Amino acid sequence: MFAWESQGALRHSAVPVLVIGGKMDIVTKPSSSETLALSLRSGQLLLVEDANHMGFLENFEVYNEAIAAFAHQARAKKSLALPAT
Question: Rounded CA gap, 61 and 47, in Å?
Answer without folding.
Answer: 14
